[in-house]
Amino acid sequence: MSIVINAQMVNDLRTQTGAGLLDCKKALTEANGNTEEAITILRKKGAASAAKKADRVTREGLIESYIHVGSKVGVMIEVNCETDFVARNEEFKVFVRDLCLQIAAASPLYVSRDQVPEADLAKERDIATAQVQGKPPAAVQKIVEGKLEKYFSTVCLIDQPFVKMPDKTVKEMLTEKVAKIGENIQIRRFVRYQLGS
Fold first, then answer.
1. If I label 127, which of 50, 91, 102, 143 is the partner at 20 to 30 A Cα–Cα?
2. Coil, strand or helix: which one is 76?
3. What is the average pLDDT value for the chain, to the nearest integer?
């Protein structure tokens, strides 16, 4: 038994996700009217769409700065996109500002895992291994990998929980923006200054 998808259902889903009308209708049809399932379908399609766009060249974008209240923490970030049209888009600008707040609040050291120096990674792996001595070898490997995941979610910006929506990572938020805006977006680099450090 299939449910009739009406315009109100499509509009409500569009308001929740920001996806196009046709995409919302297809997702609702596929989910047989279940909104939560339709959101999951749209998120999966958004991730696939973002993956396709990942190789596109990003030469436009914004450099944004943020000084925290009290002037003791400051952030400067470069976020790139494909066109100047998107760089002037208000949603893109808000996302870049939110990234500045994220960096000010969560103090990441790197944008992504591939920027973590091998020496730091080896040091963390050694510390984690030393902490679990005496456990079975199969368990040691899993525990060490879990500790490294926790390390990445502390030092890598894209692996951190997003401060405004802690149930999502920065990477998930970035993927959603790529899917919604329709262009490749890359967090190129950032600098975080803290008084006295």
1. 102
2. strand
3. 86
Q: Among all chains, which residue has been given the structure tokens 């329709």?
A: 182
Q: pLDDT grade, residue 117 (50/70/90)?
A: very high
Higher pLDDT residue, 152 or 141? 152
Could you tell me whether strands 186-194 and 73-81 are parallel, antiparallel, or unpaired per DSSP bridges?
antiparallel
**DSSP state letter for 110:** B
How many whole angstroms from its chain centre is CA 60? 19
Output the six-digit token pair for 25.
């209708």
Helix axes 118-131, 137-155, angle to 10 degrees: 130
Check: CB of residue 77 under 8 Å from CB of residue 158. no
Task: List alpha helices for the chain, DSSP H.
Answer: 7-17, 21-30, 35-53, 84-87, 90-106, 118-131, 137-155, 170-181
How far the first Cα of the chain sits from its last, in Å, is: 63
- Percent of the chain surpassing pLDDT 90: 44
Query: pTM of the predicted model, to two decimals?
Result: 0.70
Single-letter amino acid code for the residue at 132:
V
Residue 101 has which token pair?
């707040």
- Which domains are seen in the chain, by residue range? 7-53 (1.10.8.10), 60-112+156-194 (3.30.479.20), 117-154 (no CATH)
